[in-house]
Amino acid sequence: MAVQLPPLAQRLAAELAAEIDQVKEPYRTNLLLWLNDLTGREICDLSMDLAAWFAELEGIQIIEQYALVRDVCKKAKRYFGLSENRIRRR
User: Fold this and answer.
1) What is the three-class DSSP state of 87?
2) Coil, strand or helix: which one is 80?
3) Which of 10, 21, 41, 47 is a Cys-bridge partner for 6, taking CB atoms 3.0 to 4.6 Å apart?
4) Does residue 90 have a pLDDT over 50?
């Protein structure tokens, strides 16, 4: 019997929740405020609320919004996070 994967919305939401959790404060709070505006809802439980939002989107919109949020997360981590690489360069 094949293992059944979770729905796409849940998988993408879990990936984004992990990305968002890596963004340092106070930038994480700002990112969540931006997400609240983007999604039109208050994001309290990252995985659950993002999955619900993705489930409401249709077709390519899911991928476009996922890519947008993921890109913002990566930029936030790169510019505002204190990774070991950035600390060593200083």
Assistant:
1) helix
2) helix
3) 10
4) no
